[in-house]
Specification:
The structure is a single chain. The chain has 120 residues and is of the alpha+beta class. The protein is built from 3 helices and 5 strands, in the order αααβββββ. It has helices at 3-22, 30-35, 37-40; strands at 44-58, 63-70, 75-80, 90-103, 106-119. The chain has a 5-stranded mixed β-barrel. Strand 2 (63-70) and strand 3 (75-80) form a beta hairpin.
Length: 120
């Protein structure tokens, strides 16, 4: 190997290490949201977990619904306008925490209004 190639590789490794060390998991545990909903009210959060229950309404213009996500620390309802995922699927989502929502016949203290979702 030439000296310039070795120096280039070392610089690449150092830059990669710096970039990766700046990355952090922005995920919020559902139990934290449920323990202190006032702290998260009207704030964006990122959560991930398994879909355990769904409630959907298909309309001509949009698909409204709600689904419950369990991350192992707790369960929270997520409101969506893009259709509900299947029960058992694993999702990651970003959304805004809201309060005092009724899902079906169940009154829920804190929910997340979905802004973005990814499925595994």
């Amino acid at each position: 190997m030439t000296r310039s190639l070795i120096i280039g590789l070392v610089v690449l490794l150092i830059v990669s290490a710096i970039i990766l060390s700046g990355c952090k998991d922005d995920r919020t545990m559902i139990s934290r949201i449920l323990e202190r909903p006032d702290r998260y009210l009207d704030r964006n959060v990122v959560v991930a977990g398994e879909v355990t229950r769904t409630y959907g309404v298909d309309l001509i213009i949009t698909e409204l619904g709600a689904y419950q996500v369990d991350d192992g620390s707790g369960k929270i309802w997520v409101l969506t306008r893009t259709g509900v995922p299947r029960e058992g699927s694993v999702v990651g989502l970003k959304g805004r925490v809201e309060s005092g929502i009724k899902v079906g016949r169940e009154l829920v203290g804190a929910v997340i209004r979905e802004e973005r979702r990814r499925m595994r």
